[in-house]
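Sanity check

After download, print the first record. It should look like this:
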Amino acid sequence: MPSSHYEHAALLVRTAGTPPERLHAAAVDLREAFVRNEHSIGLLPGDAPDLLVRTFRAAGDQGHTPALLDLALLYQRGGIAPWAPFPGRDVAAAVELYRAADDLGSFEGALGWIRAAYFDRDAELAAAAAARLGELHTSSPENAEVLLYLGYFLHQGYGFAADAEAAASFFEAAALRGEAAAAFELSILTANGDGVPADDEAAQRWTFRAAELGSDRAQSNLGGMYATGRGVPKDAALAVEWYRRAGDSGNARAAFIAGVMLLTGEEGLDIDIEGAGEQFDWADELGFPDVDDTLAGMGLQRPQ
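Expected structure tokens:
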């Protein structure tokens, strides 16, 4: 028997005059059914991915901004979850939807297509994205994410002439306003002397700051620092703690490394078989490729 969420969405899409808010809510419920893996146990028919898209679009076509943003994000990511990759990744479709939201006055829509264009390095959109980003900065000069993307654009020479020094300035402004990704970028720039003087102490400070703000990359880097004693006292317990925090923030590789350390009792760490298994399972959910094969290559086996 099909999921009630599938049947509800199908009914609303067929019914003329359904308010966009109801369509959007039904699409969200159907999306969550995929997250719960209901498609793998036969509760979602084969056309459920198409219905999901049509329901979001039906709401978006009525000018419902949240539906446009949600569908754009699905296309940008190329899937709802690692085990439910619907719909397929389509950056052009994501940009179109974000720009439709932008046209309706959505700040998130504007930032959405700017992000998508930047990370896809779409050369045709570079000038327009840089111009729109400049407009957002004029209207919201304190916005940390706008400052972050100005740093990205300038550092990479996307839509602007490359200027590492100016990029570092924008990254610092964003980091001081609590933007974790900007603090992480500064940790790299100060380590390499890119746009700023090379400074190992500053690099370490920015790594800690980025980790505290929630950067999974910085948290993983701290795990590596404590595991090897690079710049900090060697401490396996702190290494696992930071790797686990990085995993909790979505870093699959860090979750896998935490599992290995707990499984092997590296550097005198207490062996935790149950904890290792949980980390390997979480790495799987986050999309780490071939947990079991990688362990086998290390002469290890996932706890049963």
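If your output differs, re-run the checksum step. Summary of this record's structure: DSSP finds 16 helices and no strands in the chain.
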